[in-house]
Amino acid sequence: VAESKHFSLCGEKLNMPTTIVAQNGKTLQQTTPITIQGCGAVKANKTRKLTRAQLLTRALKACRHKYKHNKHKRQTCEKRVRKKYAPKKTGHHETKPKKANHQHA
Q: What's the CA gap between 13 and 5, in Å, rounded?
């Protein structure tokens, strides 16, 4: 098997020389094709990134567990986590200039 194929037998045709000797002494020589199994059957598992809400929930749970008996540290941790995993702010909204109210005299 070539090193360029990373030593994989997938896609190769394999033949095995076979010699069978019978009890009466006659020999039968042939080549037996070998089928390769298990190639391409397993697909890679793609993992998705957790959403910001899921990350926030997980981090808050960790804060509550880690600082169970220290209220001040727990509140500081939760505040930091809420700031870190807060929903992303949308793009800059342009405000339209207000029209000046002209009073007619």
A: 14
Per-residue confidence in pLDDT tens, the chain, 105 aa: 556 666 677 777 888 999 999 999 899 999 998 887 777 666 677 888 999 999 999 999 999 999 999 999 999 999 999 999 998 887 766 666 666 666 665
Torsion angles phi and psi, residue 72, rounded to 5: -65, -45
Sole residue written with tokens 């059957």: 41
DSSP one-letter string for 49-65: PPPHHHHHHHHHHHHHH
Q: In sequence order, what DSSP letters do the residues of 8-41 get, joined into one string? A: --TT--EEEEEEEE-TTS-EEEEEEEE---SSS-
